[in-house]
Design goal:
The chain is mainly beta. It has one domain: Sandwich (Jelly Rolls). It has two helices and 13 strands, in the order E-E-E-E-H-E-E-E-E-E-E-E-E-E-H. A six-stranded antiparallel β-sheet has the order 1-2-10-7-12-5, with no helix packed on it. It has a five-stranded antiparallel β-sheet with strand order 9-8-11-6-13, with no helix packed on it. A hairpin with a 2-residue loop joins strand 3 and strand 4.
Length: 183
Amino acid sequence: MTEAEVQGVLIFEPDVFGDHRGWFEETYSRKRYAESGLDFEFVQDNVSFSQKGTLRGLHFQNPNAQAKLVQVLAGEVFDAAVDVRIGSPTFGKWTGLILSGDNHKQMYIPKGFAHGYCVLSEAAIFSYKCDEYYSPEDELGIIYNDPDIGIEWPVSEAILSQKDSAYSRLKDIPQDKLPRYEV
């Protein structure tokens, strides 16, 4: 496990055991993640399939925030997390990395972060575990190309949902809608 540039975001590289038949990977063990300080119960697993150029995000929930453990099962994506916690020393800062079915990396995104990813391969299967249930009435988002955040997305033309294309900039979200940083 390593910590990303933005405090709280963690990168995991699970062991992969391969031979002439293929490979095996334990994608989650509560004990292993608890030893890294992530000792909570995941309550919902999600999988999405997307074509090349698709950009999903930047999404977060408040007040019923979700922590997520994300990974790619097949294909390749650029994954990004933005700290949206009022009072955080890294408020508005982002971190990102390539997740793929080949590199087997996982990214833990804590509560209080907006999350998004774009598909770099022809298609990708993206999987994530959440510690809270999806709550549509608490869902918020930030426009993916917010110039104040400056995420360096590696796609020239993003394919967006109508909802994702209508999000505003972080600075235009009322502060009472954003999560608070807790030490």
